Amino acid sequence: MREEELEIALKVVIVGNGGVGKSSMIQRYCKGIYTKDYKKTIGVDFLERQIEIDGEDVRIMLWDTAGQEEFDAITKAYYRGAQACVLTFSTTDRCSFEAIKAWKIKVENECGEIPTVLVQNKIDLIDQTVVSFDEAENLARSLGCRLIRTSVKEDVNVASVFRYLATKCHQAMKQQYSTVVQTIQPTISAYSPSFQSKTNGTIVLRPSKKSTKRKNVFKKCGIL
Ligand SMILES: Nc1nc2c(ncn2[C@@H]2O[C@H](COP(=O)(O)OP(=O)(O)O)[C@@H](O)[C@H]2O)c(=O)[nH]1
Ligand SMILES: [Mg+2]
């Protein structure tokens, strides 16, 4: 497979209490629609959208929990292979804010440390807020992640959430790739002697073609 045929695909999980706007966010970002009474289409696990990061196509797959969050019944399959996470709470729901730490731990247990963003949704309802500005900032700081305030309804900042995560993942992949390439520096065993007929029989050492198994390196990071 040639390098230009490679595709970067990111599985992003969106967690948080029921009613904070997770399904609406996925619909908004992937389909450009907002409906007040969104019902999950049975059989659809995720929606996707392709964006360009640093000149490369990145396919972002957004996984929906389909309401299982109320029963603590999110299956391991939901988290499996997730490379980034959105922790979501609502401006008008104190419990959803207080549940964020538990959600973070849950994701960490299932996925390890992955790029994560804290989202305060329904910012259009700021006059009904039950979470102060500082509280939200402090929570983000204590979790070590960025806070982005969104309104899925008014389409504010939704795209920034996923662009931010995709950029972080893309950078991590590039770093991992360059580390691997650096470790394949030519050693004497990587040189293959070749005979140059125009010299007087001198044996010249040339580097053999450098191995850049990009496909394999990226596979670990979600390249399909
Ligand atoms: N005002 C307002 N309502 C929102 C926003 N995002 C979602 N909602 C509404 O909140 C309710 C719950 O949304 P939903 O996406 O089903 O939440 P989920 O349970 O986290 O998937 C729905 O009635 C949405 O229309 C927003 O940004 N502003
Ligand atoms: Mg939902």
From TrEMBL:
GO terms for molecular function: G protein activity; GTP binding; metal ion binding. It is found in: Cell membrane; Cytoplasmic vesicle membrane; Cytoplasmic vesicle, Autophagosome; Cytoplasmic vesicle, Phagosome membrane. Its cofactor is Mg(2+). It is an enzyme of class 3 (hydrolase). The keyword Transmembrane does not apply. GO terms for cellular component: autophagosome; endosome membrane; phagocytic vesicle membrane; plasma membrane. Coiled coil: none annotated. The keyword DNA repair does not apply. Keywords: Cell membrane, Cytoplasm, Cytoplasmic vesicle, Developmental protein, Endosome, GTP-binding, Hydrolase, Lipoprotein, Magnesium, Membrane, Metal-binding, Methylation, Nucleotide-binding, Phosphoprotein, Prenylation, Protein transport, Transport. Its main location: membrane. GO terms for biological process: anatomical structure morphogenesis; protein transport; system development. It comes from the Eukaryota. InterPro entries: P-loop_NTPase (IPR027417), Rab (IPR050227), Small_GTP-bd (IPR005225), Small_GTPase (IPR001806). Signal peptide: none annotated. It catalyses: GTP + H2O = GDP + phosphate + H(+). It is a lipid-anchor. Its EC number is 3.6.5.2. PROSITE patterns: RAB, RAS, RHO. Interacts with SUFU. Belongs to the small GTPase superfamily. Rab family. This is Ras-related protein Rab-23. It comes from Corethrella appendiculata. The lineage of its organism: Eukaryota, Metazoa, Ecdysozoa, Arthropoda, Hexapoda.
